[in-house]
Amino acid sequence: MSHSNNSKYRKYQKGRNKGVDPRSAVNFGDFGLKSLESARITEKQLMAIETVIKRHIKKLGTVWTRVFCDLPVSSKPVEVRMGKGKGSIDYWAARVKKGKILIELGGVSYEIAKKAFALAASKLPIKTVMVEKEKKSYFNN
What we know:
Layout: E1 31-35, E2 39-42, H1 43-57, E3 62-65, E4 71-75, E5 88-96, E6 101-106, H2 110-121, E7 128-132
Antiparallel strand pairs: 1-6, 1-7, 2-5, 3-6, 4-5
């Protein structure tokens, strides 16, 4: 694949977003927002859910974002003829598989986390569910 030297990032192809995320556990916080569908989440949507969660919890807890927008999505202007190459980068997105933890929350109560994730879920184009961290038992019960 050859391209000119004045481009910083490659324009990626669409690809497919199938399958389930195998690493779907809450690692950092106490609660997580888990996706129930596969989709592409834009940078704006990710920033919106982060902002709404931070506003709701004020300065009580900590927020961890588990997805990163590393997929450049290109588009051509409206009413442009075919050809003349691929369009310019329009926005950045993250491929989110089914079962992926999008964002985690720690240091807050169950009720505050539930409300914060409910507000965040309304900003997303996919169905999500709130999950809790699994408590590890060190005793043989």
